[in-house]
Write a structure and sequence with these properties.
34% of the residues lie in helices and 32% in strands. Strands 4, 5, 6, 7, 8 and 9 form a six-stranded mixed sheet that branches. The protein has three domains: 72 residues, 2-Layer Sandwich (Histidine-containing Protein, Chain: A); 87 residues, no CATH class; 66 residues, Histidine-containing Protein, Chain: A (2-Layer Sandwich). Helix 4 packs across helix 5. It contains six helices and 13 strands. The chain has 243 residues and is an alpha/beta fold.
Length: 243
């Protein structure tokens, strides 16, 4: 791709990002670099995971961009060191009943330490934290469990990003129903959301939330939980507030 075409593509992307209203609040763009082969390096800090996904979606929709090196991280709700984030993950992954039967290990460099060691595990999870970025690997039985593990990592307030490389040992075919199942599980498990009157619809990879919740914070949290689910590309929040 000629240099002029590269520059025009980057300028057009900057313009589209600037025009997106959902990126108007506290989205910091640090660097966009497009290689001649169409690979974009995208460096930025987002105020939320939703902003990250929206920005990446805008970039991916550009015809000249063939791939993205994702260095777009989320500004954490609470600043935490890696040790503190690991402590949260250690507690969450070793006590959550949904993960009973999954052997859990904590990776630090070349060292892999058992957190929940099981004689005959139904799956394996290992996690690593470097500079606030959580990397998940292993193999579990089903896409819903894989997605839920990722949501749990995002719930740690110090997490800046979550890279979910867990394999699905069941090799399930993904579908809108699978995504809806994972969103429902996340809402059910979130202690701050009363999901009994929330309905979930999924078309392709877009989640639509409807129903009723008692407060604006719960409405926002339900939307955030849906965004956290691996494979979700957009969330339409039509939840109404109880009178």
């Amino acid at each position: 791709m000629p240099i002029e075409a590269l520059e025009n593509t980057v300028d057009a992307l900057r313009a589209r990002l600037a025009q997106e209203k959902r990126l108007a609040h506290d989205f910091r763009l640090d660097r966009l670099h497009l290689e001649p082969d169409g690979i974009l390096t995208f460096e930025a800090e987002a105020a939320s995971f939703a902003q990250k996904k929206i920005a990446l979606g805008i970039a991916a929709a550009m015809p000249a961009i063939e791939g993205i090196v994702d260095r777009l991280h989320v500004r954490p709700a609470v600043r935490m060191g890696d040790a503190e984030i690991r402590a949260h993950l250690r507690r969450i992954y070793s006590t959550d009943p949904t993960l009973a039967g999954v052997a859990v290990f904590e990776r630090r460099g070349e060292t892999l330490a058992p957190v929940a060691d099981i004689a005959q595990p139904l799956g394996k999870l290992d996690y690593e934290v470097v500079d606030g970025i959580v990397t998940l690997n292993g193999s579990v039985n089903g896409l819903t469990v894989k997605r839920y593990i990722g949501v749990l990592a995002w719930w740690v307030p110090g997490a800046r990003d979550v890279i979910n490389g867990i394999e699905d040992a069941a090799a399930e075919a993904d579908s809108p129903d699978r995504i809806a199942e994972a969103v429902r599980l996340a809402l059910e498990k979130d202690p701050y959301v009363n999901d009994a009157q929330v309905k979930i619809g999924v078309r392709h990879s877009v989640v639509r939330l409807t129903g009723l919740l008692p407060s604006e914070p719960q409405r926002d949290m339900a939307e955030t939980d849906a965004w956290y689910v691996f494979g979700v590309d957009d969330v339409i929040n039509e939840i109404e507030l109880l009178a």
